[in-house]
Amino acid sequence: MSMILRILQLSLVLSIAPLAGMSQTGNGAENLKIVLISDLNESYGSTHYKEYVDSTLAFIREQKPDLVLCTGDMVAGQSLSLSEDELREMWQGFDETIGDPLRELSIPFAFTLGNHDGSGSGNFDHERQIAKEYWSERKPDLSFVDSAQFPFYYSFVFNDLFFISWDASYQHISEEERNWVEEQLSGNDADKAALKLMLGHLPLYAVAEGRNHSGEVLSDADELFELMKREQLNYYFSGHHHAWYAAEKEGVKMIHSGAQGGGPRMLIGSDTPPRRTVTLLEKYPGESDFQITSFDLENNMKPIKSDELPARIDGFNGTLFRYDY
Description:
325 residues; alpha/beta; nine-stranded mixed beta sheet; six-stranded mixed beta sheet; 8 helices; 15 strands
């Protein structure tokens, strides 16, 4: 490990030290901690990760969350020039950098596949097969409700929360998968849960410069949103746009995770420089929503206040309003 990296990690631990030990409330009841990560990968074929991913792992070790969520792009695929050996080497790199450390810490890891992990476009079925091969041998220790289509889409319960991970690695969601999501969100496990949450790589609506066009969001966004609203989904966590933005639309909170890997992006219509972020979600006993804190990985883990974000984002396929967390 380089001296520069050691210094970065030391400053990280010092800067977040005041946050440590927050797993209990004043009356001794434990709160739930979740760390949200996304878009870890570098350029096509890369088997290594930048220092921001190492800083994220240091943050996770310090926080000791109950669960880590990843909204996709764990490896750097989506290139027809990559051989199957190269694809397997990428997943091995992920395993050594992220997978193994999380297992050693006994922290459950839930994820959704991104376009670079195994796009559902139909052009990268071999990448999807290798992703399935990797995850079938390392199935997370989760209380699955339905894992018949794991790792592409599945559902599970965690504490009093109900989660769905769907295959938003490509802009189209099949009718079969939409029907499955509707069944899951209206089932007994979802009905008994305090919150209903979904993970998907592509967001419904555009939030980032360079991604403000068709193909970079889910098609039929309004129709998919109506499904979420009808089934009383509380949170949709997404990645892909490499920009932190918390939004709310008619009761559905849309949390756009910032990247830890390459290519952070500016928010549409904002002059704030792009930022790599990692996000902490905390749910306290008796509270109906998460307390959300997103940290700037490139600015000494400075928390990003909601009023630093645009009050609204007008993307090509719709307008989102800021959620003041």
